[in-house]
Amino acid sequence: MAQILAPNMQWQMNITKSLTPGKSMISSSNAWTSLLMKQNRKGSIKTVTKLKVCASVKSENSTVNRVGQLLNLDVTPYTDKIIAEYIWIGGSGIDLRSKSRTISKPVEHPSELPKWNYDGSSTGQAPGEDSEVILYPQAIFKDPFRGGNNILVICDTYTPQGEPIPTNKRYKASQIFSDPKVVAEVPWYGIEQEYTLLQLNVKWPLGWPVGAYPGPQGPYYCGVGADKSFGRDISDAHYKACLYAGINISGTNGEVMPGQWEFQVGPSVGIEAGDHIWVARYILERITEQAGVVLSLDPKPVEGDWNGAGCHTNYSTKSMRDEGGYEVIKKAILNLSLRHREHISAYGEGNERRLTGKHETASINTFSWGVANRGCSIRVGRDTEKQGKGYLEDRRPASNMDPYVVTSLLAETTILWEPTLEAEALAAQKLALNV
What we know:
The chain is of the alpha+beta class. It folds into 3 domains: 18-71; 82-163, CATH 3.10.20.70; 180-434, 2-Layer Sandwich (Creatine Kinase, Chain A, domain 2), CATH 3.30.590.10. Helix content is 36%, strand content 20%. The chain has helices at residues 9-16, 28-42, 44-71, 169-177, 180-185, 232-245, 272-291, 318-321, 325-338, 340-345, 382-387, 403-416, 421-434, and strands at residues 82-89, 96-103, 116-119, 132-142, 151-158, 188-199, 249-254, 260-269, 293-296, 311-316, 369-371, 378-380, 392-394. The strands form 2 sheets. Strands 6, 7, 8, 9, 10, 11, 12 and 13 form an 8-stranded mixed beta sheet that branches. It has a 5-stranded mixed beta sheet with strand order 2-1-5-4-3, with helices on one face. It is globular, with a radius of gyration of 26 Å. Mean pLDDT is 88; it is low at 1-55.
């Protein structure tokens, strides 16, 4: 059996809320009677230790209850002030950071919020002698952890002079999505975020025997049962929290590797896709933090005959969705084939360990596409082929990709970028042979 790790204090609060405040989970009279009987049989030294344990259990439950009551306290009737949790992306490009501030009244738009600053030298985003980085609020969501009028705020990052710092990928994405040609095409995205849950102390997938392996893949994908599904409560809690926050989450399921899950966000338009994925990731990080489980976005968390973790990105433009859109899709695929290296370099660190040509992936070195083929770089759905319009699925992005980068790059390559006639003709020949 897998090692079962005890949830941390925050997670226990949710469990103990239903208990009567101040009442121990152990019946007091029964506990004392039992201890006195053991004292007569086995001596006083062991009895003293056990009495301390009993008192500790009672005291700890009372403390957990009191802290839990304060965490769930609704302050709305007593003040107009709200808590805004400012969220940004750290120096690694994948780590999320956040801090809280009090706002004088509820807000409906990020423009009502003040800019803020943080120590960029502590996040790998600025030197110590000039460490101030400025947060610009860009989108707001309801806070599922604090409730009420409290909010989560996704921000991007700038120097005090107003220049975007190098890790601010949202800035360039917003420029692409504000281009009139892109705006006219109303780009839609549906992003499938895969992730792996790890046991806290051993960094081994949830549900796996510590230092060993479960049975081979097969029964775990969308599986049901204690021997097939590991972490469902976390997935469900995340699902509801995202709906509460206003994230456009469209579904979730257990994945092929045990301990691995997926949620889908979309269809989302333009820059919204990146905002929603990043906040959904933040919420998931907070939930796993409370559950005492580690969230991993590693593209290949376990080497060997196990599926990796991707972030498949479904994409369409207005022209693709209109009549005759299948030809537009094929032209977009041609452009994507010509910029394969540029896309791969931006699709997530460590992706070469995942894109091996096995486990429902294409080789990282070869561009391919096909209808209903999950072993290709780009998959076109059978319904899209049949109806002559629809969308394409880019299966190359890794689970740790930056959604601002991937979504804007897809729009740039398929809407704004035009290849030379010679390159286009050569690529068309190669793709014809591929099909």
